[in-house]
Amino acid sequence: MKKHLVSSLLFAACFQANATVVEMQTDHGTITINLYDQQTPVTVENFLSYVGDGAYDGSVIHRSVDNFVLQGGGFSYDTDFKEIETKPAIKNEPELSNVKGTIAMAKQGGNANSATSQWFFNLKDNSANLDVQNGGFTVFGEITADSQQAIDAITSLVHCGEIPVVGLNKDQCPDTTSGFNAEDLVTINSVIIVNDDPNSSASLQPKENTLIDNVDSGDGTSGGSSGSMAWLLSLLAFAGVSRFKK
To answer: Does residue 246 lie in a domain region?
Structure first.
């Protein structure tokens, strides 16, 4: 990948981040996210387009991997998982590091520029892996400190495969994706913009992704696959979820 062409001084200056602020209202608490409008404008615009369409309202958290990621933005649920209608894929913007508390875009394996609607929260510092894998995963925001409580509440739930569930124990996990009730899943009730001023969070200082400069290719072939592959729900392989390696 091409080296960044700005000087370290100018780079540091631009990384005094500004952000639109959104609130993700889940049935396990509110997650407030400061978006990095200035550093990842394409990704932020894409995310806000889904927010504006109400695409995430009523969607579910479909993937939780302990000490790795919490993922959503892909599905709603009625009597089975239904994919959110997606827009054209966007250009990768691997400017920032996948440290704990950031939100980044999921995408297909072997294709760095394939992100659409799905996103994930980094549950720990995943920079050594996700900053370089598949062209680097685009970090486009960070949660507030008090939002960690909601994240922890979701990740501490019983999991059926990688799906966090409510009110079920491991023995009650269904054999098929249509075996859930909607209330068994963690729902994102709404995602709303609470401050639309892109200069609203000038005190943020996101960490730069410096590892990507050492990756020879930005075409998504370096660092391993992240892509759409089957994942297990108990005994069922439920295909089509954007994946990446831990």
So the answer is: no
Q: For residue 3, tell me if it sits in a domain.
A: no
Are the C-beta atoms of residues 37 and 21 closer than 8 Å to each other? no
Residue 238 φ then ψ, to 5°: -105, 110
- pLDDT tens for 27-83 read 999 999 999 998 999 999 999 999 999 999 999 999 999 999 999 999 999 999 999
| Contact predicate 89/115, CB 8 Å | yes
Cβ atoms of 200 and 18 within 8 Å: the answer is yes
pTM of the model: 0.83
190: domain CATH number is 2.40.100.10
Kindly give the pairing relationship between strand 63-65 and strand 81-83. unpaired
201-217 tens-digit pLDDT: 667 889 999 999 876 54
Looking up tokens 């759409």, which residue turns up?
A: 228
